[in-house]
Amino acid sequence: MKFGLREGCLVFSLGGILLVAPIHAATPNATVGNAKQEAEARGFVFVSDRAEILSRAQKEAKLGVITSMEPETAKASAVAFKRSYPFIDLNIQPRTGSESAQQLVLQIKSGAAKEWDVVSTSSDLINEFIPHLWKIDLQAMAEQGVLHIPVPMVDSSQRNIVAFHSRFQVIAYNKNLLPPAQVPKA
Questions:
Q1: Of the chain's two ends, which shows fewer C-beta atoms within 10 Å, N or C?
Q2: In terms of residue numbers, what domain contains 117?
Q3: In a domain, 127, yes or no
Q4: What's the pLDDT tens digit per position in 110-156?
Q5: CA distances from 24 to 47, 51, 135 (A)
Q6: Structural domain tally of the chain?
Q7: How far apart (Å, rounded) are the C-alpha atoms in residues 179 and 1?
């Protein structure tokens, strides 16, 4: 495991930070067993039941999160998380901007970012983060119902990255000052 990702908390945190729905235990069956074998054959970890996730989280009892969420959103997420999991010491640090993302990548690469379990990756630097992420098959765990995360939120090529939220940017312009030929088309 690189970059100090704590196993129990990373998986456990998804149910709380994501706030989509609680994680549910999958009914043990051959499909879950097959998914676990397939994940492990690809070099991924697959945790097959909620009891194990909770046990790991209770043992760790800490969760460090770097987020690009707006402060009000991060605060509301933290309150909801603590309501559901009061035994976890939650540390959320907001970070925004490309300079902050570059600094985080350098900290991760140097081994200085050991206190963080969940990080908000930057789309323009995603390839810098990937080698340092815990190889856990979140996609297979979501598909099997171990984690109640909508499968389309998981990056299907990496399988261990989840989009908690997204943003879009808009450019506003004054049509009285910008000639029609210069208006952006995309």
A1: C
A2: 7-182
A3: yes
A4: 988 888 888 887 778 888 888 988 899 999 999 998 888 889 888 88
A5: 12, 9, 21
A6: 1
A7: 54
Beta bridge partners of 89: 62
In a domain, 164, yes or no: yes
What count of other Cβ atoms lies within 10 Å of the Cβ of residue 83?
9
Q: Please tell me the distance from the alpha carbon of residue 37 to that of residue 48, in angstroms, as a whole number.
A: 11
pTM (two decimals): 0.69
Contact 44, 159 (CB under 8 A): yes
Tokens linked to 103 = 């600094």
CA 11, CA 136: separation in Å to the nearest integer? Answer: 8
| pLDDT, tens digit, 9 for 90 and up, residues 76-110 | 888 988 888 899 999 998 888 788 889 988 998 99
Q: Give residue for tokens 């609680």.
A: 22
